[in-house]
Design goal:
Layout (H helix, E strand, L loop, with lengths): L1 H19 L1 H8 L13 H9 L5 E8 L5 E8 L8 E6 L5 E2 L4 E2 L4 E2 H9 L13 E3 L6 E7 L4 H16 L3 E7 L9 H11 L2 H8 L12 H12 L7 E3 L5 E3 L4 H8 L4
Parallel strand pairs: 8-9
Antiparallel strand pairs: 1-2, 2-3, 3-4, 5-6, 7-9, 8-10, 10-11
Length: about 270
C-alpha cells in the first residue's frame, strides 16, 4: 500500500509541477512572440543559401518578414553595386526560397512593394534640377523629380499621367530631367539635347509623338550631368520617379497610384 501511494504521489507531483512553474513549461514547449529568439539566420548563412541558386547576388541584410514564419533576405546584383535592392523570402525551415509579393488581406496593402520602396530610397536633395523642365506651378508644395527618355514609350505613358495630375492639383509640380538611354534609343541623346536647350515642354511632347526635332542649340553638358546624377543614384532605366522623401519608383504608373503615394503622409 505504501508503495502504491508513493507512486501516485510522484505521478501527481509530475502533473502539478508544470502548472506551478508555467514559465519553465513555456521555455521548453515553444517560442515567445519574438520568432528570432528561436530561429536564427545571419547574413553569412543567407549568402551561402542564395549563392547556391545565383552566385551573382550579394546579400545586404536579413530580417523577419511581416509574415511570421518567413525570413526576408535583401539582395542586389554584384554587377551593379548601386543597383536596386530586392527581397527574397525564406521559410524558417530554410528549405524553401521564393520571390513574390506579400499582400495583407485585410487592407490589400502590398507589403513587399512598400518594403522595396523603403530599401531603395535615394538622396532627393542631391539631385540638381536647374536644367529640369517644370510641369506644374513653380510654388507647388510637392515637388516630384522625373527622369525620362524622349524615345521611351513608358515615359510617354507616364508623361500623360503627370499632365492629368497637374491639371487638377496646383500643389504638385514635376521637375523633368532628360535621361537618354542611348544603348536602347540611339536618337534619344540628340532629342534630349534639343528639348533641354529650348527648355520646352512642347518639344518634349513633339519628341514623344515622333515629330521632327530641331538641331540642339547648346552643348551636351546638361544631359551629361543628368546621366551622371542618375547613374550615381543607381537609376539605370526610365522612367524613374523620385518623391521628396527619397522614395524611388522605377517605371510608369497611373495618376491615381502616384497621387496616393504623394498624399500618403498627409
Amino acid at each position: 500500500m505504501r508503495i502504491i501511494i508513493s507512486v501516485c504521489m510522484i505521478l501527481a507531483a509530475a502533473t502539478i509541477m508544470p502548472l506551478l512553474a508555467p514559465h519553465r513549461a513555456a521555455a521548453m514547449n515553444g517560442c515567445d512572440t519574438n520568432c528570432a529568439s528561436c530561429h536564427k539566420l545571419d547574413k553569412q548563412e543567407a549568402a551561402e543559401i542564395v549563392s547556391g541558386l545565383n552566385p551573382g547576388l550579394s546579400v545586404e541584410g536579413v530580417a523577419v518578414s511581416p509574415s511570421k514564419g518567413l525570413w526576408e533576405i535583401i539582395v542586389k546584383s554584384k554587377a551593379e553595386p548601386k543597383g536596386e535592392k530586392v527581397i527574397l523570402y525564406l521559410d524558417f525551415s530554410k528549405g524553401n526560397l521564393f520571390v513574390g509579393k506579400l499582400i495583407k488581406l485585410k487592407t490589400k496593402e502590398n507589403l513587399t512593394d512598400k518594403r522595396n520602396m523603403e530599401l531603395n530610397k535615394v538622396d532627393y536633395s542631391s539631385i540638381p534640377v536647374k536644367d529640369a523642365l517644370l510641369l506644374g506651378e513653380k510654388n507647388a508644395i510637392h515637388k516630384i523629380i522625373i527622369f525620362t527618355d524622349p524615345d521611351c514609350p513608358y515615359c510617354k505613358k507616364l508623361h500623360e499621367e503627370l499632365k492629368k495630375i497637374v491639371a487638377k492639383r496646383s500643389d504638385i509640380a514635376f521637375y523633368i530631367l532628360l535621361y537618354p538611354i542611348s544603348k536602347l534609343h540611339p536618337d534619344s541623346m540628340k532629342k534630349s539635347r534639343a528639348v533641354v536647350c529650348a527648355k520646352s515642354l512642347q518639344l518634349l511632347d513633339d519628341a514623344f509623338d515622333k515629330k521632327p526635332m530641331p538641331e540642339p542649340a547648346c552643348s551636351a553638358k546638361p544631359i551629361d550631368d543628368n546621366i551622371k546624377t542618375a547613374e550615381g543614384l543607381g537609376i539605370t532605366g526610365t522612367p524613374a520617379i523620385v518623391l521628396p522623401d527619397g522614395v524611388l519608383i522605377r517605371g510608369a504608373m497611373q495618376a491615381e497610384e502616384l497621387l496616393h503615394l504623394i498624399d500618403k503622409d498627409k
